Every structure is written in C-alpha cells, then in structure tokens.
Q: What sequence folds into this?
C-alpha cells in the first residue's frame, strides 16, 4: 500500500526537479530549454493530484509537497527566466521586479491551502500559480515574435491576478487535465518545433514526458467512457 502514496509524490518531486533544472538552464542562457522544463513541470503537476485521488493516496504530506514544488517550478523558475530574458536590462531593479512574482505566487498558494476543499474543487480564487508560470514560459518560448512590452504587461497582470478575488472555474472533477495543460502541451512543444524547425536544442526529456502524458490522457478518457 505504501507504493500508492509514493507514486504521486514521485511525480511531484519530478515537477520540483524540473523547476530546479529550468533555473539552471536559464542561468546558462538556454532559455528555450528552461521554458520547456516549466511546461513539463505543468504536465507532471496535472498528473500527481489526479493519481493521488485515483489511488486513494491523498495526504497532507502530498499537499504540502505539491505547494513547495509549485513555488519553485511556477514561481521562482519563471521569475528567473523573465529576469534573464527581459528584466536584466534594468540590473538590480529588474531583479527586484522579477522577484515579485514568486512573492505573489507564494501568497496565492498559502491562501489556496487554507481554502475549504469543497469550494476549491468548484472554482479557484485568483489565477493559479501553475497557469501563471506556464503563461510566462510560453511567452518566453515565443519571445522572438512577442514584443517585450507585452510580456511585461502580462507579467504585471499575472502578479495581481494571482492574489485577486476573481473566481475561475476549476476543472478538477472533469476527466481532463488542468485547464491550460493541453494548451501547454501542444502550443508549448508542437508549435515550438514547427516554428523553430529544429530538434537540436529540444531537451530529450520531452520525448519521454510527452508519450507518458498522452498515455495518461488516453487512460483517463477510456476509464471515463466506461462509466
């Protein structure tokens, strides 16, 4: 029975590791790889919670671990990515501005953790940090064709939307991954390959993560169809 609790936690730790690797790639100037690792983290994040519920392995440990992973992969990693690609021009001021993103994200996660479970299944209060970090990763991925001012405005908007009281429908009970994850998978990886026309710098991890994720979606679809 212990292995059931270990499986979702391993996916969560994989999400956390993707965030760490993303920061490392960004520091070395490999911004596309850094962005894609955040997107892979989104794929893992969409799987761990569902697997925990499917296996009956929900636990407080898993919930806290998920929050710690999210703040790194979708808070700290995107802020470093934005700093190295856009805000580095402003030196220390740019670093300070980029650092606001994980601050707002941490507050958003803490508020989510104290929200009653029943209401959190129906709607999110504020934009989830997962979606916000994924949007920044996508903007960076297509940074060559997206004006920097647009990215700056979106960055600022997401900071405030995460801590806002806007109610966003939750799809946790729908037999599909979290909203934005499908967009992440196709726009973030397939369109990137089409646009760049090259595979040389595409991290090999995506070749492993994508088939596994597609198989996971197929499993959910088949299971739901039988009900």
A:
């Amino acid at each position: 029975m212990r292995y059931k609790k270990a499986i979702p936690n391993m996916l969560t730790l994989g999400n956390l590791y993707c965030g760490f690797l993303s920061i490392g790639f960004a520091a070395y100037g490999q911004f596309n790889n850094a962005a894609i690792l955040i997107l892979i983290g989104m794929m893992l994040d969409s799987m761990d919670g569902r697997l925990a519920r499917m296996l009956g392995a929900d636990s407080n440990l898993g919930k806290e671990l998920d929050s710690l992973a999210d703040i790194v992969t979708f808070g700290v990693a995107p802020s470093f990515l934005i700093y190295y690609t856009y805000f580095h021009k402003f030196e220390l001021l740019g670093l300070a501005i980029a650092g606001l993103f994980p601050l707002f994200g941490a507050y958003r996660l803490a508020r989510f953790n104290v929200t009653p479970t029943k209401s959190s299944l129906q709607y999110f209060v504020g934009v989830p940090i997962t979606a916000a970090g994924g949007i920044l990763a996508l903007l960076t991925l297509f940074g060559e064709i997206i004006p920097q001012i647009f990215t700056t405005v979106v960055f600022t908007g997401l900071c405030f939307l995460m801590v806002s009281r806007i109610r966003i429908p939750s799809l946790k009970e729908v037999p599909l991954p979290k909203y934005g994850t499908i967009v992440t998978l196709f726009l973030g990886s397939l369109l990137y390959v089409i646009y760049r026309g090259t595979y040389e710098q595409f991290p090999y991890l995506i070749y492993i993560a994508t088939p596994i994720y597609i198989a996971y979606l197929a499993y959910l679809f088949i299971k739901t169809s039988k009900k």
Summary: The longest helix spans residues 2-27.
